[in-house]
Design brief:
elongated; 16 helices; 7-stranded mixed sheet; 8-stranded mixed sheet; alpha/beta; 20% strand; 489 residues
Length: 489
C-alpha cells in the first residue's frame, strides 16, 4: 500500500494585546518550527499549498496581521509596522515558540526583521522571498509608493489607488511565465478582505508608514553583518516592486547566503512552489539534522505492545518502553511526565476497573500538556461491526471471558470520537477473531473502516507481526488521523 501523507492544518485564534490573532498551524509539535509572515495585500492563506507540502516534516505557523485576513483588531488600533511587529512578537510568545526559521515575504520582511533584531535568540534561520532590505531592491514604482508619508499632499489617495481589484490581481499575475499556474483564489480572497469595513483605512495607515522601513535598512544590514544568520533567498525576478537586484544585495552582508532566482513575479509561490518547496526543505533540514523519531510505547511488556516496540526499534525509531511499573496510565500527571519529549505515544493496555477508558481520558488530557500531539491507541476488534450498526461486542455469542475488555475498548473509541482535542489520535482494531501469532510478511491491508477487512472467503485474519508493522506505518506516515482503522490480509 502506497502511503500518502497530507497534514492537517488547524485554524485558531489567540489573544495578543487586545487583538484576536488568527493563525494556521500544522506539523508535529516537536519538529523544527517555521514562522511564515505574509505580504501585502494577502494573509496566511497565501501559504496553504506550502503548508501542505512541508507540514508533514515541520511545525509551520502562519498568522494574519492586524488589518489582514481573519485577525480582528479593536477600534483605535494603530496600524504601523512597529505595532505589527509588536503583535507578532506577542503572538510568538503566546504560543511558546522559542526558536524558529523565519520566512519573510513582502511586508513580512519589515515585520519579521523588526522582531528578530529585538529578539535575535529566536532566529534559527532566515528565508527571504521578495522581501526587500536594500535601496537597490526598490523599483521606480516602489520608490514612488514609499514616498507617501503623513503630510505629503495626495499621499493617502495614492495609497488608496492600489487597494482596488485590478492592482490586487496584477500583483499575482504580473511577471509570471505561465498565468494559468496562478490560482484566482488568492487575489479574489485578498480583495474580499480589503473591501471589509475599515480595512482600506488600515492599509492607508500602513502605506503612509512604509517609509519607516527604508530608514531601518542600514540597521538591518548591520544586524546581518553582526549575526550572520543562515539565509536562503528566493526571488521572483520579474517583481515590479522589488527587482532581482534586491536579492543579490543580501550577499553583500550575508556572503554565505544561497540565492535562487525564478522566472516569475512578486507572489513567487503561486507559480514556482514545486521548485521552491524542496529548497526550503533542504535548507531547514540542514539547520536541524534529522533525529530518530521518539516513540513511547505504553504497555510495551504485553504481547501487542511488545511487538510494536520491537518493530519500531527495528526501523530505527527511538523507543521508550513504559508499563504500569513506570507510570500510571490513568493519571494525567504521571502520563505527562513519562511521555514528555516524545514525538508519538502508542498505547496497548487492558485491565480491570475500566482501566482502558480511564486511560483514554487521561491521555487526552496529558498529551497536550506534554507537548505530544500524536497518539495511536490499540483497541480491540469487538467494536467492529458484522452488520450495519451491529457490533461484535453486542452479539449474544460474544465470548464472555473477553466481554469486559471489549466493552472498555469500545468505550475508549467513543471517547476519542467525541473529544474536542488537539491530539492527532488513531484507534486501531485487529480482526475480531483471528489475530494470530506470526512474523511480519508485509502483505497486509490497512483501511479506515468500522467493519473487518475480509478475504475472498469472508475471513478476517492477520499475524501479530503484520499488525505491529501496520501500526508503525501509521506512526511514521501520520496516517488515519482522527480515524479508526483496521488491519487484515
Amino acid at each position: 500500500m502506497t502511503a500518502v501523507s497530507v497534514p492537517h492544518i488547524r485554524h485558531r485564534f489567540v489573544e495578543v494585546d487586545g487583538v484576536r490573532v488568527f493563525y494556521r498551524e500544522t506539523g508535529p509539535a516537536t519538529a523544527p518550527t517555521l514562522l511564515l509572515l505574509h505580504g501585502f495585500p494577502s494573509a496566511s492563506h497565501q501559504f496553504r499549498r506550502l503548508m501542505d507540502a512541508l507540514g508533514g516534516r515541520y511545525r509551520i505557523i502562519a498568522p494574519d496581521y492586524p488589518g489582514f485576513g481573519h485577525t480582528e483588531a479593536p477600534a483605535g488600533f494603530e496600524y504601523s509596522f512597529d505595532r505589527l511587529a509588536d503583535i507578532v512578537e506577542g503572538f510568538v510568545d503566546a504560543l511558546g515558540v522559542d526558536r524558529f526559521v523565519l520566512y519573510t515575504f513582502d511586508f513580512g520582511g519589515p515585520v519579521g526583521l523588526r522582531l528578530v533584531t529585538r529578539r535575535p535568540e529566536l532566529l534559527a534561520g532566515l528565508i527571504v522571498q521578495n522581501a526587500n532590505a536594500y535601496d537597490e531592491g526598490l523599483s521606480d514604482m516602489a520608490r514612488a509608493m514609499t514616498a507617501n508619508a503623513p503630510g505629503v499632499p495626495g499621499a493617502a489617495d495614492n495609497v488608496r489607488q492600489i487597494l482596488e481589484l485590478p492592482v490586487t490581481r496584477g500583483q499575482y499575475e504580473g511577471g509570471t511565465a505561465d498565468v494559468e499556474l496562478v490560482a484566482p483564489d488568492g487575489w479574489t480572497l485578498d480583495q474580499h478582505f480589503l473591501d471589509l469595513p475599515g480595512r482600506k483605512e488600515a492599509q492607508v495607515q500602513l502605506g503612509l508608514d512604509y517609509h519607516t522601513n527604508l530608514a531601518l535598512y542600514p540597521v538591518w544590514q548591520q544586524w546581518f553583518r553582526d549575526h550572520r544568520p543562515p539565509t536562503l533567498v528566493l526571488w521572483g525576478r520579474n517583481d515590479a516592486f522589488f527587482p532581482e537586484s534586491g536579492a543579490h544585495a543580501y550577499l553583500r552582508d550575508l556572503p554565505d547566503a544561497a540565492v535562487h532566482l525564478f522566472d516569475t513575479g512578486h507572489f513567487a509561490l503561486e507559480e514556482r512552489l514545486p521548485e521552491i518547496a524542496p529548497l526550503i526543505d533542504e535548507f531547514v533540514a540542514h539547520l536541524f539534522p534529522e533525529q530518530p523519531m521518539k516513540i513511547a510505547v505504553i504497555g510495551a511488556t504485553g504481547n501487542l505492545g511488545g511487538a510494536v516496540a520491537r518493530e519500531a526499534a527495528a526501523r530505527g525509531l527511538q523507543v521508550t518502553a513504559l508499563d504500569r511499573g513506570t507510570m500510571d496510565v490513568t493519571d494525567a500527571a504521571s502520563v505527562k511526565q513519562a511521555v514528555a519529549g516524545h514525538d508519538v505515544v502508542v498505547v496497548a493496555i487492558k485491565g480491570p476497573d475500566r482501566l482502558v477508558p480511564r486511560g483514554a481520558l487521561a491521555l487526552l488530557e496529558a498529551l497536550p500538556l506534554a507537548g505530544v500531539d500524536r497518539l495511536v491507541f490499540l483497541g480491540g476488534g469487538g467494536s467492529l461491526e458484522y452488520a450495519p450498526g451491529q457490533r461484535f461486542v453486542d452479539s449474544p455469542n460474544f465470548p464472555a471471558q473477553y466481554l469486559e475488555t471489549a466493552r472498555d475498548q469500545t468505550e475508549a473509541l467513543e471517547i476519542f470520537r467525541a473529544a474536542a482535542t488537539t491530539v492527532r489520535w488513531s484507534y486501531v482494531s485487529p480482526p475480531p477473531v483471528h489475530l494470530v501469532p506470526g512474523a511480519a510478511t508485509g502483505t497486509y491491508r490497512a483501511e479506515a473502516r468500522d467493519t473487518p477487512i475480509t478475504d475472498a472467503e469472508g475471513e478476517s485474519r492477520v499475524s501479530v507481526g503484520d499488525y505491529a508493522a501496520a501500526i508503525v506505518d501509521a506512526v511514521q506516515h501520520g496516517t488515519f488521523v482522527g480515524r479508526r482503522f483496521t488491519v487484515a490480509y
